[in-house]
Please model this.
Amino acid sequence: MLIEGFLQYCATRLTRRYLAFEEYTQDSPPQSQKDGRYLLYIHIPFCEELCPYCSFVSIKFEPSVALGYLDAIKKEIEIYQRCGYCFDSVYIGGGTPTILPEKLAGIISFVRDTWPIKQVSVETNPNHLVNETLRILKDVGVNRLSVGVQSFNDKILESIGRLEKYGTGEEIKERLVRIAGMFETLNIDMIFNFPNQTEEILAEDIRAIKESKVNQITYYPLMVSEYRKNEISKRCGEVNYRQEKKLYQQIVEGLTEAYEQESVWCFSNKKGAIDEYIIDYDDYVGVGRGAFGYINGTMYSNTFSIDRYIKRAQEGKHSILAYRRYSYIERMRYDFLIRLLYGTLELSYMKRKYGKSYWFYLLRELLFFSSTRAVKFRDGKIVLTEKGRNYWLILMRTLFSMAGDYRERRAKLDTAGDEN
Ligand SMILES: C[S@@+](CC[C@H](N)C(=O)[O-])C[C@H]1O[C@@H](n2cnc3c(N)ncnc32)[C@H](O)[C@@H]1O
Ligand code: SF4
Model:
């Protein structure tokens, strides 16, 4: 427990530094530094229902606003095109990207016509697994569909406000079974450690996953931002991080009977399945309201105001509002953290990117994690152990919860005085 507390403390301090953004005042986004190999992240922030735990600061769907927003997305992508960017993968996240499927297909077609895109990943909700939407996604070349399920238990779904809108666990499972094999990768997003989620409920969820025939599962620990804390405890009870480790172990044991563990929280039964963040990419460009981008050692954040976002796009202007240039050591730590989320870090990769003395700068981390047996060195790689996976869960949960806090804070500031 002492080490876990220490890790949480370090992660909080580190994340605070990484999120200490400055105002971005340049007229154009950063220029592309290389040809190809960028990932394009597109954010669609609208949802039919807002879930009480969600820290992605979505807004209630209104067709007229969403239509204007999706036109603005295309304009922002064109700005990056003019800056010389070339993309070969697209990740469309939300909110609910499939809220206006035909408009979404228009954006995907435009990106596909502009660059040699190999992979398109789209997030959705269970109520959008209907023939018409699926056909549109399939025809436009979506390779990976990711469905937010969270739990198959009706009591949990009811407490998080998803039962009425998205159907019972059984109905969701049937829809998943029906579309098995339609996309190269069918992922479901699940959450564990809801306060009202017992070991028995989790065992039922694991059983339902195996019956659902999906080939990938991303199983997030519940991440609680300060802004969501009260609402979560009102609906589900007090969050208890002490049971996280036990539940995580249950998931790993249950799922590795049928799936391979691909990252700390991703499981897959398909070789070469497309993962949730596509780790192959060092850099990504984020477009859309509140999107983050990481380009050449600098983190960028777009405005959270929909009004401002649409207006700027109509004027042909980018929407970057804040940035934080990471020092050399901060970049190394960022790589260390994110790459080990996927279980291994190639020493040759670090050497190529940061020179052969990189280990000297990471000495503290390497000594700490190897002396606590969280990592081991094998065949030119740093490998996360079982204990390390538990540690990484704490690190990533802290980082994501704080990123949620940043979004909520920023959204309040940026949208003061907006109509939408
Ligand atoms: C942001 S949603 C977007 C896609 C879709 N609307 C959905 O609900 O799945 C993507 C996933 O993030 C995860 N997520 C959102 N808020 C979370 C939180 N506070 N803790 C853990 N996971 C969370 C959920 O598993 C969710 O499915
Ligand atoms: S979890 Fe998904 S559906 Fe729920 S509010 Fe967040 S983005 Fe919207």
User: Anything to note?
Assistant: DSSP finds 16 helices and 18 strands in the chain.
